[in-house]
């Protein structure tokens, strides 16, 4: 096959720009192996990331399901980052990215049947004790998705949100985020080991992340759009779909699955992290809403009620 001189010229220009010798790079190709699927996807590494703590077969389902979730969370963050790092976003780009993100969460929502109907209840309730004090709220990527989707005030615990100072420091806001309730005594506010351990690992990273997304989160970027774009029905529908999917449908799929395993014979078991998971998880208690101005007062009042 004859070399295309146009491509050769482009390659030379590319490497000249970074002060590199094209001939050296071409010579390197002589020693390179052809790419294949398993090396590109890192299949062997991926399939060796599942290390059960027990002998129960269904623990593998639990591990792999959560690993799949984390990969989808990374896909969501990749889409949000593109909006955050683009100085001039228009309605078309915004709508396309929001719908991509929504499709990822549609997959996450429907996939909960794998957890709900795909594990033996007795096996789960045996192997889950070995997971203490780990908790699902310790997913750093999911926390970042929330930070990157809306203003911090919308993530403040509902008990404090109405009177919370929007100009409060990041550190103070962090102490009042809704998911902090999953790692604190609901009455005294004392932190559990689960929450303290999570903060030791991620708090500084979260604070840096939220400082960037203060003005670059999806809700803030939406409000920077021209008024005509903010009135775009397709975009508004996409934003509402994303908000409803993440904060009601996906949460309720999670809640229903947890209830299936933890509410047995009318007795609600404690979560592995020790949280009061019903009040933390159900959307009617916290009313987590990324884009509140896109919903009517009645819709907000009924948030999570009619599920």
| Number of E-state strands | 2
Sheet with the most strands? 2 strands, antiparallel
The first-level CATH class of the largest domain is given as Mainly Alpha
- Number of helical elements: 18
Mean pLDDT across residues: 90
Kindly estimate the percentage of residues that lie in beta strands according to DSSP.
Answer: under 5%
CATH-defined topology of the largest domain? Methane Monooxygenase Hydroxylase, Chain G, domain 1
Q: What general form does the structure show? A: globular
CATH architectural type of the largest domain: Up-down Bundle
Estimated structural class: mainly alpha
Q: Helix coverage percent of residues?
A: 55-70%
Secondary-structure element order, as H and E?
HHHHHHHHHHHHHHHEEHHH
Count of folded domains: 2
Low-pLDDT regions: none
Distance between the termini: 62 Å
Strands side by side in the biggest sheet: 1-2
Radius of gyration (Å): 23 Å
Can you summarize this structure?
The protein has 307 residues and is mainly alpha-helical. Helices cover 61% and strands 1% of the residues. The model has no long low-confidence stretch (mean pLDDT 90).
Topology:
Blueprint: H1 5-17, H2 22-29, H3 37-41, H4 43-46, H5 58-84, H6 91-110, H7 112-117, H8 121-127, H9 140-149, H10 158-161, H11 170-175, H12 193-213, H13 218-224, H14 227-230, H15 233-262, E1 263-264, E2 267-268, H16 277-281, H17 283-286, H18 297-301
Antiparallel strand pairs: 1-2
How would you describe what is shown here?
The protein is built from 18 helices and two strands. It has 307 residues and is an all-alpha fold. It has two domains: 5-32, no CATH class; 58-301, Methane Monooxygenase Hydroxylase, Chain G, domain 1 (Up-down Bundle). The chain has a two-stranded antiparallel ribbon. Strand 1 and strand 2 form a beta hairpin. Helix 5 runs parallel beside helix 9.
């Amino acid at each position: 096959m004859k070399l295309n001189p146009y491509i050769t010229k482009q390659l030379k220009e590319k490497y000249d720009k970074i002060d590199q010798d094209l001939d050296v790079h071409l010579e390197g190709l002589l020693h390179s192996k052809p790419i294949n699927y398993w090396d590109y996807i890192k299949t062997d590494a991926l399939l060796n990331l599942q290390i059960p703590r027990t002998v129960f077969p269904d623990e593998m389902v639990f591990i792999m399901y959560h690993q799949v979730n984390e990969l989808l969370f990374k896909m969501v963050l990749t889409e949000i980052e593109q909006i955050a790092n683009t100085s001039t976003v228009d309605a078309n780009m915004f709508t396309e990215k929001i719908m991509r993100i929504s499709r990822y969460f549609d997959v996450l929502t429907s996939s909960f049947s794998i957890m709900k109907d795909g594990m033996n209840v007795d096996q789960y309730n045996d192997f889950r004790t070995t997971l203490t004090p780990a908790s699902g709220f310790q997913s750093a990527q999911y926390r970042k998705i929330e930070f990157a989707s809306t203003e911090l005030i919308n993530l403040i615990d509902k008990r404090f949100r109405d009177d919370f100072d929007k100009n409060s420091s990041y550190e103070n806001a962090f102490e009042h985020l809704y998911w902090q309730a999953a790692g604190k005594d609901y009455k005294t506010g004392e932190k559990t080991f689960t929450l303290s351990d999570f903060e030791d690992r991620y708090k500084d990273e979260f604070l840096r992340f939220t400082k960037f997304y203060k003005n670059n989160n999806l809700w803030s970027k939406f409000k920077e759009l021209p008024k005509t774009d903010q009135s775009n029905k397709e975009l508004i529908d996409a934003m509402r779909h994303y908000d409803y999917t993440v904060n009601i449908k996906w949460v309720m799929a999670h809640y229903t699955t947890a209830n299936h395993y933890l509410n047995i014979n009318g007795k609600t078991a404690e979560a592995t992290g020790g949280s009061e998971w019903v009040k933390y998880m159900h959307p009617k208690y916290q009313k987590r809403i990324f884009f509140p101005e896109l919903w009517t007062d009645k819709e907000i009042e009924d948030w999570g009620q009619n599920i």
